[in-house]
Design a protein that fits this description.
The protein has about 500 residues and is an alpha/beta fold. It has two domains: about 10-265 and about 470-490, 3-Layer(aba) Sandwich (Aldehyde Dehydrogenase, Chain A, domain 1), CATH 3.40.605.10; about 270-455, 3-Layer(aba) Sandwich (Aldehyde Dehydrogenase, Chain A, domain 2). The chain contains 15 helices and 25 strands. The chain has helices spanning about 55-70, 80-95, 100-110, 115-135, 170-185, 200-210, 225-235, 245-255, 280-295, 315-325, 345-360, 395-400, 415-420, 435-445, 480-485; strands spanning about 5, 20, 20-25, 25-30, 35-40, 45-50, 140, 150-155, 160-165, 185-190, 215-220, 240-245, 260-265, 270-275, 305-310, 330, 365, 385-390, 405-410, 425, 430-435, 450-455, 470, 475, 485-495.
Length: about 500
């Protein structure tokens, strides 16, 4: 792969190792048994983080702290205005510390620094959006139930929310959950991914600086088992909001079943983009390249499944391959880099196994497949890869590869395109490319997905809800729906003035 655009290592890594500890009841703590773990930068393979490793004891202490903080009302009974004041302050502090937070996400995840900066700026906007919702949240009133009756529907915080997050957008995803939980009046226990704990720890520091009362937000670092499982099983946790793989999502539902707690899930995707022959092919090709290589394809919204009309399949594939060669892969610390390192050795092997299985099954690979050498860096980089001549039954066409790998399928009619698009267990997002608005609308109405992009890909706004159908999830984040996830509905019926007609004569 010599004709690709490669950004070699720039200046050597100077960042000190970050010391990450748990935040429990307002104090930073190591684990009682002294357990800890390390995180290496996937691009450099040097240790960048040393973190306390939580066990059952730390998790239960964090849950107890959140429980007490919720029950005594130090946050849940504040006015929306008071909560919003803290959330707005956090947003300001995130912007002040944007560079520090972005650097931690880049070092631990391997994502490009320019992209990380955009994510942190987007996260600050989420905190402001949630602050606005905290002040405008309302219930309902019913004065049509009879002359002496009034029905009032109250919105109340669910209680203690456990927030379990993945490694691919560490700071952005915790910011899709926590400000909305806090706006609703919930208290929280957070478990960031063991691969990317630091930016959540920094968020804890900013929350303290912004004046959040002790115990309202608690952070436990460590692995899914026991930290995440303890949160799911605890009778003192009222809700779990999880973002991650569909497999772990199912385990979370099982672990939460014993206490029948509310569960909100943002899971994987195998997102189709259907390309009709009347679209602007250059525009579509550029968005397809963005959709598949953004975050090295390690993105729930990766537009990794192209379904293109057979009349334009060859032309589109040529354009995509040509553009792919221009995408800058390399040193995540260089602001010119668009695609950085793969998160782990095990994940790299998984990506490669999908590509090799497709090759063995007769697929063609006009570009890529395999490791990319980046001069000066010893970490793992996967080259831009385009796979054609595949059928919808192949794993590469149905399963989440979570790497910079594009699968190209073809169709003859709109019926076939919709059938192929829906032929997956996932239903997160989908796209359609056509100049004909009726074609776009017909597709948008029949595709099984939580989000549909027409003539664009992966635009996101704090105001718009996001989430999946089928095995891509339960519930929604962002928009006003993102707040509703953390609310319970209570119905209060009041008789006013007159005495009730006696039941007993
Ligand atoms: N739909 C979305 O919004 C969205 C966003 C980002 C990522 N994702 C999905 O996340 C996946 C990649 O992230 P990942 O590899 O970190 O996911 P993962 O499911 O392996 O882990 C996610 C989190 O769950 C924890 N965990 C693991 N096992 C657990 C258990 N048994 N109980 C409780 N917690 C447990 C992990 O420690 C981590 O914090 C992909 O499938 C991707 O599509 C979805
Ligand atoms: C929606 N987003 C981009 C934050 C996460 C997808 O993995």
């Amino acid at each position: 792969m010599t004709d690709l655009t490669i950004i070699p290592a720039g200046k050597s890594l100077q960042e000190p190792v970050f010391e990450a500890r748990h935040l429990i009841n307002g104090t930073w703590q190591t684990s009682a048994d002294g357990a800890s773990f390390e995180r290496q930068s996937p691009a450099h393979l040097v240790t960048v983080t040393h973190a306390a490793k939580g066990g059952v004891a730390e998790t239960e202490a964090a849950i107890a702290s959140a429980r007490t903080a919720f029950d005594d009302g130090r946050w849940s009974r504040l006015s929306g205005k008071s909560r919003a004041t803290v959330l707005l302050k956090v947003a300001d502090l995130i912007e002040r510390d944007l560079e520090r937070i972005a650097m931690r996400d880049t070092l631990e995840s391997g994502k490009p620094i320019a992209q990380a900066r955009d994510e942190i700026a987007g996260a600050a906007d989420l905190w402001r959006h949630a602050a606005a919702l905290a002040r405008t949240l309302t219930g309902d009133s019913h004065n049509t139930l009879g002359d002496d009756m009034l029905g009032v529907v109250l919105k109340e915080p669910v209680g203690v929310a456990a927030l379990i997050t993945p490694w691919n957008f560490p700071f952005l995803i915790v910011s899709q959950k926590l400000p909305y939980a806090l706006a609703a009046g919930c208290t929280a226990v957070i478990k960031p991914s063991e691969m990317t704990p630091s930016s959540t720890v920094i968020l804890g520091e900013l929350l303290i600086e912004a004046g959040i009362p002790d115990g309202v937000v608690n952070i436990v670092l460590g692995y899914g088992d026991p930290v995440g499982t303890t949160m799911c099983e605890s009778e003192h946790v009222d809700m779990v909001s999880f973002t991650g793989s569909t497999g772990v999502g199912k385990a979370i539902v099982r672990a939460s079943a014993g206490t029948l707690k509310k569960v909100s899930l943002e899971l994987g995707g195998k997102n189709p983009q259907v390309v009709f022959p009347d679209c602007d092919l250059d525009d579509a090709a550029d968005a397809i390249v963005f959709g598949v290589y953004f975050n090295a394809g390690e993105c729930c919204n990766s537009g990794s499944r192209i379904i293109v009309h057979e009349d334009v399949a060859e032309a589109l594939t040529e354009k995509v391959v040509a553009l792919s060669r221009k995408v800058a892969f390399g040193d995540p610390l260089d602001p010119k880099t668009k695609v950085g390192a793969i998160i782990s050795e095990a994940h790299f092997a998984k990506i490669d196994s999908y590509v090799e299985a497709a090759r063995e099954a007769g697929a063609e690979i006009p570009l890529g497949g395999g490791a990319l050498e980046i001069p000066g860096l010893s970490g793992r980089f996967y080259g831009p890869t385009v796979v054609t001549n595949i059928s919808s039954g192949m794993a590469i066409a149905r399963e989440e590869v979570f790497g910079p790998v594009l699968s190209v399928l073809t169709f003859k009619s709109i019926e076939e395109a919709i059938e192929l698009a829906n032929d997956a267990s996932y239903g997160l997002s989908a796209g359609v490319w056509s100049r004909d608005v009726s074609t776009c609308l017909a597709f948008a109405r029949r595709v099984q997905a939580g989000t549909v992009w027409t003539n664009t890909w992966m635009d996101g706004y704090s105001e718009l809800p996001f989430g999946g159908v089928k095995q891509s999830g339960l519930g929604r984040e962002l928009g006003r729906y993102g707040l509703e996830e953390y609310l319970e509905v209570k119905t209060v019926t009041m008789r006013i003035g007159r005495t009730r007609a006696p039941w007993v004569e």
